[in-house]
Amino acid sequence: MMSKLGERFLIYAALAVLCALTAAVVGTAAGLWSFVQIVAVIEIIYWIASPGEKPQTRGW
Fold first, then answer.
1. Would you give the DSSP letter of residue 55?
2. How many Å separate Cα 1 from the centre of its chain?
3. What are the UniProt keywords, alphabetically (predicted)?
């Protein structure tokens, strides 16, 4: 089973390859800007969707 860090690395590596292809076709600035925008959206979604601390309950 892959850790969260491993999953993120895999996602960002695939994203970097896609944005490098974009940069090769359209231009360096477009590829870099696309990468930055997509990473920002992924991180915002991860931050919003990540579960907070579990509420503490008293054990009986």
1. P
2. 19
3. Membrane, Transmembrane, Transmembrane helix
pTM of the model: 0.73
Six-digit token string for 49 = 């969707």
Q: Average pLDDT by consecutive 10-residue portion of the chain (60 residues)?
A: 83 95 95 95 89 66
Exposed e or buried b per residue across 8-29, where buried means at least 16 C-beta atoms within 10 angstroms of its C-beta: eeeeeeeeeeebeebbeeeeee
Secondary structure of 11-42 as H, E, C letters: HHHHHHHHHHHHHHHCCHHHHHHHHHHHHHHH
Give the pLDDT of residue 19. Answer: 95
